[in-house]
Specification:
- It is built from eight helices and no strands.
- By secondary structure, it is an all-alpha fold.
Length: 249
């Protein structure tokens, strides 16, 4: 059975899948840029939601869900940046050595942003241990700092990644896709894949959703919606609307 990846950075889009020849490479680059933008939107959307929720007291079970989601967000970003820094940019530089400086800057931006994300995870872990309002507000401060950093990083990435993708020849697109396939073989449980898909689709516009779902067979999507969407919806309701017994703190 063909294994599908629902993470935008992991979707293999070969030049032959688009218009063919040079135009096909351009179509593949446009699709990947749009999929990157989908992930960026989802991350910033949830950081904005966290900012609103963490401003007030929450129950223990809601706190646990929010902390778990912080870990999920930072994990998605880590894999997304690994794809760019380890697969796309090295091949772009091989095709156009003048991009070496830009590649170094992108990698440095990602490392700095990853350090900010690590600080957020540390703050969330402390909140998990202590569970008081003071540590909740420390997480809120960390979320705001990360959101500001990522907004700038995503904007720069959108500009320079278009240049990197434009430098990929058909040979390098094929090599990138082989790397993506190897990473897909390490995919995890269907519940995890479903969560990633529904997280990306959450409040997504119809045109972007169509790009994201282009390679998902209708039957597979039916199974995911009917078998796994309920868990995502319940978790989202708990985090962003509320729930759980006990005194909110």
């Amino acid at each position: 059975m063909t294994q599908l990846s629902y993470r935008p950075g992991d979707l293999a889009i070969a030049p032959s899948d688009a218009d063919g020849g040079a135009g096909g490479a351009g179509g593949a680059a446009s699709a990947r840029l749009r999929l990157d933008a989908v992930l960026h939107r989802a991350v910033l959307r949830d950081l904005d939601r966290l900012t609103s929720v963490l401003a007030g007291p929450v129950t223990a079970v809601r706190r646990s869900a929010l902390i778990g989601h912080v870990t999920f967000l930072t994990g998605e970003l880590r894999r997304h940046w690994q794809l760019q820094d380890e697969l796309i940019w090295p091949r772009a530089v091989a095709g156009d050595p003048s991009l070496a400086g830009a590649a170094d800057q992108v990698r440095d931006d990602h490392l700095a942003a990853a350090a900010q994300c690590a600080g957020l995870v540390t703050a969330a872990e402390r909140w998990a241990r202590v569970g008081d309002a003071e540590h909740r507000l420390l997480v809120l401060d960390a979320v705001r700092e990360v959101a500001a950093v990522l907004a700038a990083v995503f904007e720069r990435d959108g500009d320079v990644n278009a240049v990197a993708l434009g430098a990929l020849t058909s040979m390098y697109w094929a090599a990138t896709d082989r790397g993506v396939v190897r990473r897909r073989r390490r995919r995890r449980r269907p519940t995890t894949l479903a969560r990633e898909l529904f997280w990306l689709l959450d409040e997504l516009d119809a045109a972007s959703a169509a790009v994201l779902l282009a390679d998902v067979p209708p039957l597979r999507m039916w199974v995911l919606r009917n078998g796994f969407s309920g868990g995502y919806n319940r978790g989202s309701y708990l985090m962003w609307v509320g729930g759980g017994l006990g005194v909110p703190v």
